[in-house]
Amino acid sequence: MMSAAHAPRSDSRSTAPTGTPVRRIEHVVVLGANGTMGYGSGALFTSAVPKVTFLARTREKADQGLAAAIKAVRSPTVGERVTTGSYDDLERAIANADLVFEAVTEQLDLKREFFARIDRARRSDAIVATVTSGLSINQLAEGCSESFKKHFLGLHLFNPPNVIVGTELIAGMKTDPKLVDFVENFCVKKLGRVMIRTADTPGFAGNRVGFKVLNEAAQLAEEHGPLLIDRVVGPYTGRAMPPLATVDLVGWDIHRAIVDNIHAHAKDEVHATLKLPAYMEKLISAGTLGNKSGRGFFKTEGKKLFVLRPKQGDYVPASDVKLPNLSFIDEISELHRIGRYEQAMAAFLAAPGDEAALARKVVAGYISYAFHRVGEVTETITGIDLIMGFGFNWAPPSVLVDTFGIKQALALVEQAGLPVPKALVDASRGPIRKLFTHPTANVGKYFVAG
Amino acid sequence: MGQTPDVFVLGGFQTDFARNWTKERKHFAAMMREAVLGALSVTDVDPKDIEVAHVGNFAAELYCKQGHLGAFFVEVDPVFSGLPTSRHEAACASGSIAILAASAEIEAGRYGLACVVGIEQMKTVNATEGGDYLGTAAWYDLEAKGVEFPFPKLFGKLGDEYDKRYGLKDEHLAEISAINYANAKLNPNAQTRTWYMNKQHAMCRTDDNAAVGGRIRISDCSQVTDGAAAVLLASREYAKKYAERRNIPLESIPRIKGWGHHTARLCFADKVAESKGNKYVLPHVRATVTDALRRAGIADVKGIDAIETHDCFTTSEYMAIDHFGLTAPGESWKAVEEGVIALDGQCPINPSGGLIGAGHPVGATGVRQLFDAHRQVTGVAGDYQVEGAKNVATLNIGGSGTTSVSFVVGL
């Protein structure tokens, strides 16, 4: 009988040279805890951290955030680890925090006000992270102390954080590299994240590449209509959800904030595709914000689906919209359905008609844009691949290239009249191998039938 | 009788058990293709080398309205046209039965290289309907017909029987659940790797952790899972060539060192009546385990470095602990309390997260367990690696302890 005392096989705790305090995260304070990203991240922290403080403008709002966090992960045990408070308590609440996690409204000035207060009250070794989805990390920290800058970084979780594991990590110019390593390791080991390091560039990696495609789809919807665009750039092209349905889910106001920021602050080879369509600007002013406002590119009344006419700004029943023959999509989907992804994507390249050409142009644009960001946003294509796969649930650009074949992918970009990225040309010159080599990701999951 | 010829495990592949193939709008043919091509790619084996294929599956007729799963293997690649294939069914033990069939053929010298695939697509139907289908793993007319979620109730009764004979505390079942969920967080293919779970939650007695069958609560249950696993089994002759080609020693390729296989009466009440007066609640499960150890030439469970067991419910793992001999009969709680079954314990159970944490695509589970045993003894289990594991045992159970299969995989 085995009854001897429990003998651990190894000591998993890190040991540090004598005198060096071991950094731990045992108390996290979340600012903006009533917002989606605030309570979602807060719930995630409670899975690994014994003490989490939820702060909001009022204690009631923080309590609402806690209730939402409990609901999000469906466990009342979240409450056992969380205390709540208002920003009046901020200084006291963060005095002994190991990590201050800022998730307040996406406004530079507002965030800076909070950082000034945090800077004065934080413990000198406390980490400060912002969940910003695109504001500059360096700009956000301007005016703060050297110690603050050394401990400040961007930790861009995706919504909902307990489901989507892809996370961007953005260091500022002054951020201590050892601290960046520590936070990355903590997020991987304790929070189950897939971490991607990006440069401090507008929209970082995921939103830069993802919203370029979404915005292009919105631009194309003006001429072709949302229904056709979501069909031809639909799940069969390597995404869980069609692009315009995604914009409706994200919210048109959020979409505008992201593309405006990229359009204003990044100059790239396809700058115009980041310009928000004028019809969206107009409709946003009139209260069209996507699903949360009850209408976007699509709206439902009862069980009936209606589609926006971008030029007119009105809606027509989806059943009245005449679509051209799209049988190529059915044929490709049928191949996905039985797992013949290479054959399916070869059929995509060969599909006849204007609609297939339009779909290829968007997919080629995605590949071209993503590979052009290598060296600017991430060191290699892998970072962009991971955030598209684990953050957006889209086929990573390298997965598409691997599935098409690299020569075919190059030809696709050329035929679409798009700039050919050097990173892709370089990859095509090496020995033939897969570009996407993640050890556990099932690339088949990105090719959704229908 | 001479020595039984060896069966080598070259390696394998499992699909990501978090995937929902109905949401991807896919047929299980896609799942089988990904699993088989994955196994061939990881092991670097030429598809032409495969001489026979065995498919383990429980109920594709119900979940997918499709039978004849052996034939779907041929659809994976044109070179498989003409290959001898078959499908095996023994409820949740289907995958292990397919492995037994493939091993027997290799031992008999019929074939040199076999591919075994376990597969189940379950998310095609809602939970109640799926629960009803699972009822066909019991004696449906007698134990499941008209019963909502029959299996939690049957395994709740297993807990009741322990309680009656030896006493049983909920906190020990909650700890078993918490360990499986925690281990699953380390397994990149585990279904629940991003789920929120801890022991306090498993101890919740509110609607957040609702009772589904007697003492069985949501946190005590394994998952409804879509998934497949494939392994390649080889004769000594093929393994030798394979080792030479890859320039690795033959001794570095794990073997199926032992196996056990018994079938008890279908109805749970009959099993319990039969075991009256026996130290073991399910003596045929005990015999399955001891057979596997004996055939592996291992004296007792002290020679086993980790176990992948059938935790369809926490009560089944509780039962496995004493049936493996980690404690005296009825004292499984001691191994739970002393940390013996924890990932860093003396004999970790379900480093993968098991059926509760990693997921339970019914027909795939036995193959997934064998594949995890292979990963452990070859040291490639990543974050859920049990350091220095040389011999790993599996236990796969169909029905309410009805068909039991155990393997010992080791170097």
Characterization of the model:
The complex is a heterodimer of chains A (450) and B (411). Chain A has 450 residues and is an alpha/beta fold. Chain A folds into two domains: 27-198, Rossmann fold; 206-292 and 322-446, N-(1-d-carboxylethyl)-l-norvaline Dehydrogenase, domain 2 (Orthogonal Bundle), CATH 1.10.1040. Helix content of chain A is 45%, strand content 12%. Chain A has helices spanning 36-46, 59-73, 90-94, 108-121, 137-140, 146-150, 177-191, 206-224, 226-232, 243-250, 252-265, 278-285, 327-337, 341-350, 354-372, 381-392, 397-404, 406-415, 422-429, and strands at 27-31, 51-56, 82-86, 99-102, 127-130, 152-157, 166-171, 194-198, 298-301, 304-309, 314-317. In chain A, the strands form two sheets. An eight-stranded mixed sheet of chain A has the order 3-2-1-4-5-6-7-8, with helices on both faces. Chain A is globular and about 65 Å long. Chain A starts with 26 loop residues before the first strand and ends in a 21-residue tail after the last helix. Residues 1-16 of chain A have low confidence and may be disordered. Chain B has 411 residues and is α/β, with parallel strands linked by helices. Chain B has a domain at 8-125 and 224-246: Thiolase/Chalcone synthase (Peroxisomal Thiolase, Chain A, domain 1), CATH 3.40.47.10. Chain B has 16 helices and eleven strands. Chain B has a five-stranded mixed sheet. A four-stranded mixed sheet of chain B has the order 8-11-10-9. The longest helix of chain B has 16 residues, at 28-43. Chain B is globular, with a radius of gyration of 20 Å. The mean pLDDT of chain B is 97. At the A-B interface, helix 13 of A face helix 1 of B.
